[in-house]
Amino acid sequence: MLKIDNVSKTYKKGNKEALKNINLDIGKGEFTALLGQNGAGKTTLINILAGNVQKTKGIVTIGGYDLDNNSLETKRIIGIVPQEVGHDYVFTIEEMLKKQSGYFGIKNNKNYIDDLLEELSLKDKRKVTARELSGGMKRRLLIAKALVHKPKILILDEPTAGVDIELRRSMYGFLNKLHGEGTTIILTTHYIEEAEKLCKRIIVIDDGKIIEDQPKEKLMGLFSENTRIKFEFDYDINSSDIEFLEEYSPIIKENRELQIKVNKSDLSKVLRLVSERGLKFVDINVDKPKLEDIYLKLIRH
Amino acid sequence: MKAFYNRYGFMTLLTREIHRFTKVSIQTILAPLLSNILYLAIFGAMLQTREVGIDGVSFLNFLVPGLTTMGALMAAFQNPAFSLIAQKFQSTIQDLNSYPISDVEKSLAFILGGTFRGFLVGILTYTATIPFVGSQISNPILFFFSICVTSFIFASVGLVCGLILDNFEKMNFALAIVITPLSYLGGVFFEVSKLPGILSYIGLINPIYPLVNITRYAYLGIYEGNIWVHGIMALIFLSVAFITSLIIFRKGIGIKTR
Ligand SMILES: Nc1ncnc2c1ncn2[C@@H]1O[C@H](COP(=O)(O)OP(=O)(O)OP(=O)(O)O)[C@@H](O)[C@H]1O
Ligand SMILES: [Mg+2]
């Protein structure tokens, strides 16, 4: 669906090499997270796909169309939610979306525009201009704008920055629905748990290079020895009680809390041992590996 | 890439460029109209009795085609220029890259939007002068055609300025330092041949001069100089302005990052 071959970008201004030989192949219907620190090159990559930034080198194919030779066809295939929020202040939301449909050659799109406004909780704002929207609403309007032509590939550059928790949740639901309908989605975000919740594939970009590209499950599996179990007791325990847990690097905290690190496959064995030895815990807490920890590990090398 | 790709998209963009100024028509239509009527009233009151060079036409009659042309070209220039600067200001300029509309279609949408506004202001200016001098036009078809061509040329210039300049201050500077002086020296208020010394030669490279003169010829039926030379000059200015705007748009200057 989207193929990026050896794409590099050096900005004329500042002679900054923002992307170094990027290779990517994203299949139809994938839901991919593009992660990376500030300045890693995520927006640069997206802007190349959008035609906002001219690449220095490489080939991009979108839905089978070459970006350089068939750029107009590629525009019908992608919808981009830019990182920077900007809206026209002359027209009302409804007029704006109607015009947006028109640019794509779509004549009567009222029903779909209504659906979008409903999904993105903007229905009651249809008659006002974007000036009267809050920051989070403006961002949601960007999503509506990117979707009016029903793109097969939706690329979102930090769509949830500044959106409140409840609406963020409903946005997740909406993205999942689009994914379910077969839309290929690429999501950039600094909320890692968002990527963990939604995406099936994780790409980490660092200093213009792709340093990790894995299915989420596999990536998280690689770090599964990280599972941390915390037991709490209502009496003091001492180190002799827990000698049998030696190999799981036990730590006792404040006499009543025990922490061990367990590999997923050993989990039930450890729990059986604990109860056989008569350790009577009052609370147990399993800290599953978080994408966030893995991500931090990756970018710190 | 095809030059014409998406007609409905083009029409939508053109309609937007028109819709954008009709929504604020007090500033975009009424204001220039009022200032033109003011010129007419002031000059008319002051110089009623003065007769100008060509066959003793009254100064007010002489002034009408000049003001009409100037009103048209200013409005035509401002429409694409300010539309683009506003889009840069609102960070929506890159939206233009996301439409499946060819560069030629996009450029034309901006230029024709400006042409329409120029034509509208030109016609309204002419209409506003009717109470002062009456409605007679020697060659109406040429008169309206000339206003259209003038608007088209300056809409193209406005498109170029909107692309290469990045803020309102620079745009106002360009207007004050280039467009306004060229109009004043282009025979809007007086015959260029009456200008002192070197200034009279500016007419030879001033795109406004032949345009004003053709409009004036169409209006009065009398002419200073050679109409064919001016016709060819207008054609050259039109081609240069239009092609330059296409090239700059195509290069993505002001819209795409390199
Ligand atoms: N227009 C530009 N001209 C010159 N350099 C630029 C330009 N845009 C971005 N850069 C540089 O390119 C690098 C990558 O920037 P980019 O915007 O792609 O990062 P990002 O991964 O999107 O970061 P963030 O998470 O902060 O949005 C940065 O070093 C940045 O300074
Ligand atoms: Mg970014």
TrEMBL record, chain A:
User: SMART domains from the xrefs?
Assistant: AAA
Q: Spell out the PROSITE patterns in the cross-references.
A: ABC_TRANSPORTER_1, ABC_TRANSPORTER_2
SUPFAM superfamilies (alphabetical): P-loop containing nucleoside triphosphate hydrolases
* Record-linked InterPro entries: AAA+_ATPase, ABC_transporter-like_ATP-bd, ABC_transporter-like_CS, ABC_transporter_ATP-binding, P-loop_NTPase
Boundaries of each ABC transporter domain copy? 2-232
Pfam families documented for this protein: ABC_tran
In alphabetical order, the GO MF annotations are: ATP binding; ATP hydrolysis activity
Q: Among its keywords, does the record have Lipoprotein?
A: no
- Keyword annotations of the record: ATP-binding, Nucleotide-binding, Transport
The name under which this protein is listed is ATP-binding cassette domain-containing protein
Q: Organism, per UniProt?
A: Alkalibaculum sporogenes
From TrEMBL, chain B:
Q: What is this protein called?
A: Transport permease protein
Which InterPro entries does the record match to this protein? ABC-2_transport_permease, ABC2_TM, ABC2_TM_bact-type, ABC_2_transport
Keyword Glycoprotein found? no
One GO cellular component this record assigns the protein to is:
ATP-binding cassette (ABC) transporter complex
Q: Which family does it belong to?
A: Belongs to the ABC-2 integral membrane protein family.
| Superkingdom, taxonomy of origin | Bacteria
Q: Which organism's genome codes for this protein? A: Alkalibaculum sporogenes
Would I find Transmembrane helix among this entry's keywords? yes
Entry-linked PANTHER family: INNER MEMBRANE TRANSPORT PERMEASE YADH, INNER MEMBRANE TRANSPORT PERMEASE YADH-RELATED
Q: What is its main location?
A: membrane
Q: Which GO terms describe its molecular function?
A: ABC-type transporter activity
